[in-house]
Amino acid sequence: MYRARVAPSVLIVATACCVGLVAASHTFTSTWKAPGTGPLDFAGKKVVALVISTDENLRMSAESALAREIAARGPKGVAAYTLIPREELTDKDKARGWFERTGVEGVVAMRIVGVDKQRSYSAVVWSSGYYGNFYDYYGSSWATVTPIGKGQIDTTVAVETLLYRVSDATLLWASVSETTNPKDAGAFMKEFVKVAVKELQKEGLIKGL
After folding, report:
1. Cα(129)–Cα(127) distance, rounded to whole angstroms?
2. Spatial separation of the C-alpha atoms in residues 173 and 187, rounded to whole Å
3. Are residues 9 and 180 in contact, defined by beta-carbon separation less than 8 angstroms?
């Protein structure tokens, strides 16, 4: 069982960004892999980069950066904002239609989940409730988004990163990371997507990553 301590502040997938000279550092405090999940071959297949945030500029720039990192490693990385109309984005049923009609094979979803109390992440969390099905997660997570704003020095931002297989909406891998003192939201997310995709590579979840 893995436990993650999530520090105050929040969302995006976010929270407070800080001011200061201390460089941001990213640490994966909790990871989970679905039982029986082996190497996955998404090479040449469409994998969507989804960042759940009410900040449009942040969401679009982060999705573009994440899509580029995915594409650089074999799959066809696609930013969700280029696929789903903004007015339909938070409707899980309408979004599902876009994922299915456009032949999406996988989704890498990110959301900042930093809160002001300790939260535990374990197999129990990710194998039950709305996490187990991509479209249940999709519908619920948009309702719990907190805009990123300015914060204080020594702020810790916790980011949830998930990998779903779209054909059966199954969660394959999940993680929570903590980042200390990001300089600003845009720079933080552009840097973090690289770290997250490298973690997928290290886990051997996608052939070629």
Report:
1. 7
2. 25
3. no
Q: Of residues 69 and 206, which shows the higher confidence score? A: 69
Residue type present at position 143: A
92 compared with 40, residue with greater pLDDT: 92
Read off φ and ψ for residue 144, nearest 5 degrees: -120, 25
Pairing relationship of beta strands 156-165 and 104-112 according to DSSP bridges: antiparallel
Indicate if the pLDDT at residue 176 is higher than 60.
yes
What span, in angstroms and rounded, lies between the C-alpha atoms of 130 and 49?
A: 20
Alpha-carbon radius of gyration of the chain: 16
Beta-strand relationship, 76-79 and 46-51:
parallel
- Whole-angstrom distance, CA of residue 12 vs CA of residue 3: 21
Domain boundaries, the chain: 25-203
- Give all strands (DSSP E) within the chain, no chain letters: 25-33, 46-51, 76-79, 104-112, 156-165, 170-180
pLDDT at 125: 65
The three-class DSSP label of residue 34 is: coil
Yes or no: domain 25-203 corresponds to CATH 3.40.50: yes
Instruction: Give pTM, 2 decimals.
Output: 0.72
The residue assigned the tokens 């909790």 is: 30
